[in-house]
Design a protein that fits this description.
Shape: globular
Bound molecules: glycyl-adenosine-5'-phosphate
Number of strands: 26
Largest sheet: 9 strands, mixed
CATH class of the largest domain: Alpha Beta
Structural class: alpha+beta
Number of domains: 3
Strand order of the largest sheet: 3-10-11-19-16-15-14-12-13
Radius of gyration: 25 Å
Number of helices: 17
CATH superfamily of the largest domain: Bira Bifunctional Protein, Domain 2
Distance between the termini: 32 Å
Length: about 475
């Protein structure tokens, strides 16, 4: 089993995520988050949200069901589609790109006609049964509710972004007509993927955290990036480099200050939540692969075993002009006497794929075969487990009493009294709990406890009373003993 497969097995067994509706055989592209998954996903989105709050973004929440007028204006009704193939023998449905690539070709297509010409002239085979594929079709990616709206169809949104764009004027008033302005939304997106696959990677219902940064199109400026961290860049033309974004901007690798700023910020958020910077790259999307709304996009990709998976897309887009034209409402702001219809730089975070990548990068197996998740303290579902060494001699009642009191300081704790202490440590390591607080016979004498750290398995002794005032991951003695690097 590769790391991804081991993580999927662990995730189901220990309550991170699993296929939805499984008692009825499941439904492709839908996954449930279990008790630990919900806690960890919330911790990831908290880091994301607080980072953007510090950047003075405002947050809104708009409906997931959207009238067709919005998606006609945005171009999604016409253009948000993939080319698909269905094997005439085994009826397996796939994205055309996947099938063509598996047959050894590197090719993207702009129309069904172009694709069908290619399929007639070249031998492309079904990835499942090997039968020759000769036909491609256009497959629309939005879920449609025919005739349900007051003026036609309704759609489940495929991105949260449009809910922000259509509110631009109201938001601009809220922001006192200043540019640049950043508006964020965290919520569900829906896509009728041709072949949902690989658990959380290609879902039909998923969570996005999107920030729409409205900028002057002639300047595309947000704030100065620090330029202090090198990032792995794969530009559209030229060699891959590891370089800070300030140098990349000077060398013309990044097209705007705002793009450079959000590339750096994204690298910082992703590494903070636990993605390994050595397995993270920024790939500028080739022109013929760009989404219909984008002029320039940097895909942010995490390496999972041997596959690079897009976890975030940072796009340069221009949707306000489309909504202005279709709605007749002005989408401009007056800045220093100049009327400006802003451009948009959009970092769009796929929370499920980030969540999965964090788990894969955190996973390792000890020499003794025990599995561990090396999660950052703030991302792990629980900050600590409270354990009596044995369930007698006052250790159990003292541990239980401490647990009841520490929960009021830090609710991300769990009590575990069943099985040997070694077995309990292993159970907590496997779900990424950074610290185990154990009450032993000395605890009953002097009120101290052992704090065992997950990765080193080292232990220190601290006064339990101190933990009640500082919390566990906020305790300086614990931090300096184990997180000094
Ligand atoms: N508003 C821009 C936009 O939606 P995108 O690149 O299509 O851009 C952004 O999506 C992110 O959303 C992706 O990088 C990915 O992490 C996530 N995402 C997109 N489709 C997904 C799917 N079917 N399942 C899980 N995550 C998905």
């Amino acid at each position: 089993m590769n790391t991804y497969e081991q993580v999927v097995e662990l995730a189901k067994r220990r309550g991170f995520f699993w296929q939805a509706f499984s008692i009825y055989g499941g439904e492709a592209g839908f996954y449930d988050y279990g008790p630990l998954g919900v806690l960890m996903r919330d911790n990831i989105t908290k880091v994301w949200k607080e980072s953007y709050l510090r950047d003075e973004a405002v947050f809104i929440d708009t409906p997931v069901i959207v009238p067709s007028t919005v998606f006609r204006a945005s171009g999604h009704i016409d253009k948000f589609a993939d080319l698909a193939t269905e094997c005439s023998k085994c009826h397996n449905k796939q994205k055309l790109d996947t099938v063509v690539k598996a047959s050894g070709f590197q090719k993207t297509f702009r129309s069904v006609e172009e694709a069908n010409r290619f399929l007639q002239e070249n031998v492309v085979k079904c990835v499942v049964c090997g039968n020759r594929i000769t036909q491609a079709t256009e497959f629309k990616l939005m879920f449609r509710m025919p005739g349900q709206g007051s003026s036609g169809d309704l759609y489940l949104r495929p991105e949260t972004a449009q809910g922000i764009f259509v509110n631009f004027k109201l938001l601009s008033n809220f922001y006192r007509n200043k540019l640049p302005m950043a508006v964020a939304q965290l919520g569900k997106g829906f896509r009728n993927e041709i072949s949902p696959r690989q658990t959380l990677i290609r879902l039909r219902e998923f969570t996005q955290g999107e920030i729409e940064v409205f900028v002057d199109p002639e300047r595309k400026y947000w704030k100065e990036p620090a330029g202090s961290m090198p990032v792995n860049l794969n530009p559209r033309s030229g060699e891959s480099v590891s370089m800070d974004v300030v140098t990349a901007l000077k060398n013309g690798i990044m097209s705007s200050n705002a793009m450079a700023y959000f590339v750096e910020k994204t690298a910082s958020i992703l590494t903070e939540v636990g993605i390994d910077s050595a397995r993270l790259r920024f790939r500028q999307v080739p022109t013929d692969e760009l989404a219909h709304y984008s002029f320039d996009t940097w895909d942010v990709e995490a390496l999972l075993d041997d596959d690079w998976v897009e976890v975030v897309g940072i796009a340069d887009r221009n949707d306000l002009k489309n909504h202005e034209k279709a709605s007749g409402e002005s989408m401009s702001v007056l800045v220093d006497g100049k009327s400006i219809t802003p451009s948009i730089i959009e970092p769009s975070y796929g929370i499920d794929r980030i969540f999965l990548s964090v788990l894969v990068h955190a996973f390792y197996v000890r020499d003794n075969g025990f599995k561990v998740l090396r999660l950052p303290d703030e991302i792990a579902p629980y900050h600590a487990a409270i354990l009596p060494l044995v369930n007698k001699d006052g250790m159990d009642s003292m541990a239980r009493d401490f647990y009841e009191r520490i929960k009021r300081v830090d609710p991300y704790v769990v009590y575990d009294q069943s099985g040997s202490i070694g077995r309990r440590y292993a159970r907590q390591d496997e779900i990424g709990t950074p610290y185990c607080i154990t009450f032993d016979s000395q605890s009953t004498q002097d009120g101290t406890v052992t704090v065992r750290e997950r990765d080193s398995a080292r232990q220190i002794r601290v006064a339990s009373q101190d933990l009640l005032s500082t919390g566990i991951i906020g305790n300086e003695k614990i931090r300096s003993a184990f997180r000094s690097s």
